[in-house]
Design brief:
With about 290 residues, this protein is α/β, with parallel strands linked by helices. Helices cover about 35% and strands about 20% of the residues. The protein has a six-stranded parallel β-sheet, sandwiched between helices. A three-stranded antiparallel β-sheet has the order 7-8-9. The protein is globular and about 55 Å long. About 40% of the residues are buried. The mean pLDDT is about 95. The chain binds pantoate. Pantoate binds next to β2 and α6.
Length: about 290
């Protein structure tokens, strides 16, 4: 009987000192390093980032750190899904060589008082409903980019505003790591993959489809010649309303600056955040691209 393929688990390191030592060996051997920062609870979307990092680099490291700084006081920090054992196995299958899983005190030791703020790009959209969120993201990502000194770091486009914030901070702070944005990975029915999908009941899971369906409806309108933001946004809002999903925002934005647009072109980004029950989900797409 053929035996099942054996996948090596990535090496697990928990301290900055261990990490620096492991990275020094890779560098000495001349390897290009790829980094995939995550908060764990890995799904196929994360695995696509790990595979992408493997295409861009010789050695792939994944960080798993549920970053307290990016959660507001009433958000889901304590109940955020955690599954280290499952994550390590998935990282191995996707080709990661190393996982860095620090304790909060390793990242924010006593006396920590330096934060990174990307000013304009962090305002509006998720920044408006989650004050301080992008300051927390920018701070931890800056630390991770400095710690790893990777050639490339891969982030998902599902968190589109986050991606723009990270690109900006890398550029503004002269961090040489190349930032790559990888496409959203979707369930077969169109739902964008997210660790927070684990919170959904089966009824909520069904209603959550209204985000991608709303984007698809707006895209159909756009293909029919509609370029005014309001009717395009209304197509999404109507779809959310008919599923009992509460919008946080539905916005049509310039894909580079995230500024509002007076009229949509094919690159215009339609960005949606909405509450399905108590779970806040995100989705986005370019109006000109294929199905969301
Ligand atoms: O997208 C995430 O999982 C997080 O915001 C990140 C980039 C790992 C920073 O904590």
């Amino acid at each position: 009987m053929p035996s099942a393929p054996v996948t090596a688990l990535p090496r697990l390191v928990r301290t900055q000192a261990e990490l620096r030592a492991a990275l020094a060996v890779w560098r000495h051997e001349g390897h290009r390093i790829g980094l995939v920062p995550t908060m764990g609870a890995l799904h196929e979307g994360h695995l696509s980032l790990i595979r992408r990092a493997g295409e861009e680099a010789d050695r792939v490291a994944v960080s798993i750190f549920v970053n307290p700084l990016q959660f507001g006081p009433k958000e889901d920090l304590s109940r955020y899904p955690r599954d280290l054992e499952g994550d390590l196995a998935k990282c191995g299958l996707a080709g990661a060589d190393l996982v860095f899983q620090p304790e909060p005190a390793e990242i924010y030791p006593e006396g920590f008082q330096t934060h990174v703020e990307v000013e304009r790009l962090s305002q509006g959209l998720c920044g408006a409903s989650r004050p301080g969120h992008f300051r927390g993201v920018a701070t931890v990502v800056t630390k991770l980019l400095c710690l790893f000194g990777a050639e490339v770091a891969v982030f998902g486009q599902k968190d589109f505003q986050q991606l723009r914030v990270i690109e900006r901070l890398a550029q503004d702070l002269s961090i040489p790591t190349r930032i790559v944005g990888a496409p959203i990975v979707r369930e077969p029915d169109g739902l964008a993959m997210s660790s927070r999908n684990a919170y959904l009941s089966s009824d909520e899971r069904r209603r959550a489809l209204s985000l991608s369906q709303g984007i698809a409806a707006a895209r159909t309108l756009f293909q029919g010649g509609e370029t005014r933001p309001d009717p395009l946004r209304t197509a999404v809002l109507d779809r959310l309303a008919s599923s009992g999903v509460r919008p946080d925002y539905v916005e049509l934005r310039d894909p580079a600056t995230l500024e509002p647009l007076a009229a949509a072109g094919p690159d215009a980004r339609l960005l949606v955040a909405a509450f399905v029950g108590t779970t806040r989900l995100l989705d986005n797409a370019s109006l000109g691209e294929g199905r969301p």
